Model the fold of this input.
Amino acid sequence: MSFRFGADIGGTFTDIVLVREDGAAMEFGKVLTTPAQPDDAVIAGLEKVRADAGVDPGDVAHVVHGTTLFTNALIERKGAKTALITTKGFRDAIEIGREHRYDMYDLYMRRPDPLAPRHLRYEVDERVLVDGSVLTPLRDEEVVAIAAEIRREGVEAVAISLMHAYANDAHERRIAAILQDELPDVLLTLSSDLVPEIGEYVRTSTSLANVYVQGIAESYLGRLRDRVTGELKLDAGLYIMQSNGGVCEIETAKRYPIRLVESGPAAGALAAAHYGALLGHGDLLSFDMGGTTAKACVIADGKPLIANEFEVDRQYQFKKQSGLPVKIPAIEMIEIGTGGGSIARIDALRRLQVGPDSAGADPGPASYALGGEEPTVTDADLVLGYLDPNFFLGGTMNLDIEAAKQAISSRVAEPLGLSLIEAAWGIHQLANENMASAARIHTIERGKDVTKFPVFAFGGAGPVHAFGVARILHSPRVIYPLGAGVMSSIGFLTAPLTLDFARSYPGTLDGLDWAAVAGILREMQEQGREILHRTIEEDQIRYEHFADMRYVKQGHEVRVPIPPGDFGADHLEQIRRSFEDAYSAIYGHTMQGAEIEVVSWRVLASGPRPDLILPQADPQESSDPATALKGHRAMFLPDEKSVADVPVYDRYKLSSGASFDGPAVIEERESTVVVNGPATIHVDQHANLVIDLSKVE
Amino acid sequence: MAIDQITLDILWGRLIATVNEQAAALMRSSFTSIVREAGDLSAGVFDRQGRMVAQAVTGTPGHINSMATGVMHFLERFPIDTLMPGDVLVTNDPWKTASQLNDITVVTPVFKAGKVVALFANCCHALDIGGRGLSADSRSVFEEGLFIPVMKLHDRGKPVEAVFELLKANVRTPDEVIGDIHSQIVGNEAGAKQLLSFMDEFGLDDIEDLSEEIISRSEAAMRERIRDLPDGSYSYELCIDGFDEPLLLKAKILVEGDELTVDFDGSPDAVPLGVNVCLNYTRAYTTYGIKCALSPDVPNNEGSFRPVHIVAEEGSLLNATYPSAIGGRHLVGHFLPSVIMGALADALPDRVMAPGFDGLWDTHISGRGRKTGEHFSFTWFSAGGTGALKHKDGLSAAAYPSGIAGVPAEVIEALSPLLIHRRELRNDSGGAGTHRGGLGQVMEIETLSDEPYLFSGLYERTKFPAPGLAGGSEGQAGRVLTNNNEKLEPKITRMLPADTIVTLEMPGGGGFGPAFERDTEHVLQDVRNGYVSAAEAKTKYGTVIDTDTWAVDAAATEKLRQKTR
Done:
C-alpha cells in the first residue's frame, strides 16, 4: 500500500502529515522550523514520521511540500541583488505605481521600496505598440552595453519587462538571449513569459518579485530534491504547492517561485473545501486563526474563490495596496491582524482595541513569561478559563496565568474600571468582532451571504474563537476538523497538478478577432499539455478556459468560465451569458445594452485531483463521551455573565457518534475547542466536531 | 453612561462595520469607475437629530467631510417624524452637500417599530449631470447642470417617476447615472439591514444613547488634542496660480483652550469662474488638514468636528453664494490642507507636511485617431510630489489630498490613440530640505492623429511652486511644453497641430528643514539614484559626491556646509 506525505514549513513549526492511500492511516508530526536551512526540518520531520509509522521508504509515492521561504525573503528583503531592464522612459513605472496613497490620514505613510533600486533600472531605446507592432527596433549593442554595466554592478538577477511585451515578446527574448551569452550566471525573468498581461506597473512588479527569489528557489528546491532521494531514499514524486491551489513540479517551481508565495494559506482553504465536500457543504467559510493573524476564505460550490492578483510585503500589514502587487492567480482570502498574540490597548477615546499589532512569538503574550508585558488575546483566553495553563500545545509549554492576570488588570481592567473577567471577556469578544466584521465584508464584496456559510475552524487559535465568531455571523454550523494545526499539510494532499496561463488580448466582445482568440487559447493549452503530459496521461488532463471580462470603462474584471474549443457565433452568445451570470452573482444586476470587453484570456490545465481518503470510523455503540471526560474547569460563560465549571474532554478519546451538550471544552494537542454557550456537539465518522448553531439560537 | 464599556466598544465597532459594508455594497455595484477604483464616495449613519455617528473608511475628504453637515439639511426640509417607511431622499444641492452638482447624496431613513431610528446617507460622484460637464468655465451654477433640490426619490416604497424622468432627460449617460443612484439606494439598504440586525441582537430600541456616547467621546478626544496645542494665533498664506490672476489663500488659526477657529479672512473674493467653493467644501478640506495633523485616530463624526470652527466671509471665494459657479471647486479647495499645515507648523512641527503639488493635473485629449479614423476622447488625472515632514521625505507622484487610481500607460494606449513616450520621475523637482519633497513626474504624450486635436489641461503650481517648511526649499514648479519648445498655458483648451507632442512636467513637493542639515548618506543615495543631481547636491545640500566611487567627499562637504553656518 502506498503512502503520501505533506510537509509545510511555517514560522515556528514544520508540519508533516502522512496518509495511506486507502485512508486506513493518518499520522501527524511537528518539528521546529530551522530558518537558516529550512530543508533540515523537512528532512528530519519526514524521516521521523516515516520511521514512527514504520513505513518502508519504498512505499512513499508522493511528497507535497509548501513553504513560506519566498514570502519571507521578499518581506525581509533577503533576495538577490536585482536589476530591471525596461523600455526607455518607463524605468519609474514601479515607483510611480498607482499614484495612490493607501491611507488617507497617515502623513507618515510609507510605500514599499521597489525590489530594484533606481540606479539598477536600465532603459533600452525600443518600443512596441499596443497592437504588437514595432515602433523602435531593439539594437543589440545597447543591450551588450547594459550587460557590461550589470556585470560591473555585481547584479545577480534581472527582470526584463518592456512596454506591451504581452503583445509581442520578441524584444524581451532577444535581450534575454544576449544576456544569457554575456552573463550566463545571472538569473532572468521575462515579463512576457511569467505574466503576459496588460499593465506595466503590475507586470513589472511581478517579474521583479519572481526573479528576486529565483536564486533562493533554485538552490533550496534543488537541495531538497537531492536530500529526499539521497538521504531519505524516497523514490517519490516531489511536488510543490502553489498559491492557486494546485501543485507543480520542481522545475516549474524553480522557474516561477512567485507562484509559491501564498501556498500555505491556500492549502488550508483547500483542506476546508475537501472537508466541506465530504460533509455536503459546497459553501463554507474557512477560518484560520493563528498567533498573529486570522484568515477567512470563501468556499463557494466546493471551490475556493480565486483572485488574479495579490500583494507581498504590505507596509501596513493588512491594508490593501500597501504592498508590492503580484499578478498571479491565488486563492482569495482576507487576512486581518487578529491572532493569539494580538495586543489589547486603550486608545485615545478610551476604547478597548485589539490588534493589529502583535506580541508575536517573542516576547509573545504576557503568559508566555518571556518578557511580554502587554495583554494579548491568548492571555484573555487563559484568564477566561478557555485555555489550560498546563495543557498549552499539548502540555509542551506552560502558561503563566498570574502574568496574564497582571497584564490585563494593569493595562485594561484598572484604567477602564472593569473587573478582570470583564476586561478579559472584552478582549476575547472584540477579537471575535474584528474577525466577524472582516469575514462579513469579505463575503459582501463577493456577493455572498455569510449567514448561509458554515464555519470551518482551524489554526492554533481558530477553535478557541470559532464558536463566538460563528454566533456573531449567525452561521448555521461550525466544523472543527481533527488536526487544527496541520490543515495546510492536509490541503497539500488534495491539490492536483495545475498550471495557469494568461495572456492579454483586449477587445470588445463584438469587435474581437475570434480566430486570434482561439489561437491564443490553443497555444496556452498546448503549453500546458506539453508540461503535464510528462507525468499525466493525456486523457487525464483537464483544461478550463476563462476570460477576464468587464463592461467597457469599468475597472474590475470578472473571471468568467468560457467554453473550450474554437469559437463560432453561438459561442459568442454563450460567453455573453456566462459573463452576465458571473457579473450578476457579484453585483446583483447586469447593465443592459452596455458593451462588454475582454482584457485577458486564461487557461488552467490540471491533472486529476488526488483522492484523499480520510480515516473513518463508524459510529460506535460505546460512544459515551463520559469516557473522554478529563475533568472540569471554571470558565466564563457570556450568556450567564458568570464563571461556571464546565466539562473538559480529551478529543482523542471521543468516539465517532458521540454527542454531548455545551458549554464544554474539548482539548487536542494543537488547539482547544471552546464552546462557551448552549450547543449540541456531535462527533462525526471522520472525527470532526460539528455544532449546529441553527438549533441554538 | 447607559451602556457598559465593552458593549459600547462592540456596538461602536458594529456601527463602523455597518457603514463599511454600506460603502462596499455601493462600490461593488457602481457603474462609475471613479467610484469603484478611487472609492470616490462617502457613506455614513446619522442619528435622529441628523448628527453623523459613524462613517465608512473610504473616499476623498470633499465627500466625507461635507457629508457630515448634509443630513441636517434634509431634516429641515423633511422633519424626521414626517418620514415614512420606504422613503428615500435625494439632493445634489452644492450648498448643502459636496459643492458640485455631480455629487449626488441619497438618504434613507431606517424604521424600527414604526419610528425612525437612524438615517443612512451616501454621496457619490455621478458620471454626468448635464450642463457643460465637469468644467471650470461656467459663470454661474445654472450652466453647470441639473440642480436637484432636497426631494423624495422614493415615496413610501415607490419611485417618484418624475424625478427619474427629469434626470434621464438631463444627463448624457442616463443608464449609468440612474444605475448609480440605484446602487446608492442599495448601499443604504444594506446598511439599514445590518443596523436592524444588531439592534435586535443587543435589544436596542434606538441608537440615541449610543450616538450620544460616541459623539461626546469623540468631541472630548478632539478637545484634548486642541488643548495640547499652545494657545495663540497662527497664520499662513499660500499663493496658487489661479486663472487670470494668482489667488492668495490666507488663514489664521486661533487656538483658545480646547477650541480652534480657522479664519480665512483676507482670502480672495469670489471669481466669475467655476472655481468658487461652497463653505461646506471649504470646511471639508480644512477639517481634513486638521485631522491629518492633529487627530488621525479620532473617528469622523459630529463630535470630532464640534470644537473646530471655520470662518470665511460670505460671498468670498471660500464661501461662495448661490448662484456662483462652483463646478471646479476642487481646483481651489485641494490647496486648503496645505494652508492649514503651514499655519500649524509652529504649533505642531512633528506632525505637519510641507505643501506639495496639491492640485491633481487634469488632462483631456480628444480628436480623431489615425488608425481607426474614429473620434476619441480621453481624460486622466496625474499626481506630482507631496511635501516632506520633519522625519520623512515626501512621496513622489502620489495624490494628496485627493485620491486617484493612476492608469497604466499601456492601458491609456489600449483605450485611445495616445502614445506615451515617457512617464518618469522628474529629477531635482523635490524641494530640498533636511527631508526632501517628493518628486513630480514627467509625461510625454503624442496623439496618433492626422488632424489637429483638442487639448485641455487644468494644471496648477506652474507659477507658484510648493513652498518648503521650517527652512526647507520649494519644489520645482510645473511646466507644459511641446516638441516645438513652445510653453503652453497651464489652464488651456486649444487645438494643437497633429504632430504636436506635449510634455507635462509636474511639480514637486516642498522640503522640510534646512537642506544643509540633510544626512549626507541620504544625499548620496539620492544622487546615486538620480533623484537629485550631483550639481544640486552641491549647491542645495552642500554635499560633494564623487560619482566615480559613489562616496561622499566628507572634507569638501564639511567645508561647504561650514560656510553657511
Remarks:
- Residues 5-218 of chain B form one domain.
- The longest helix of chain B spans residues 174-201.
- The radius of gyration of chain B is 25 Å.
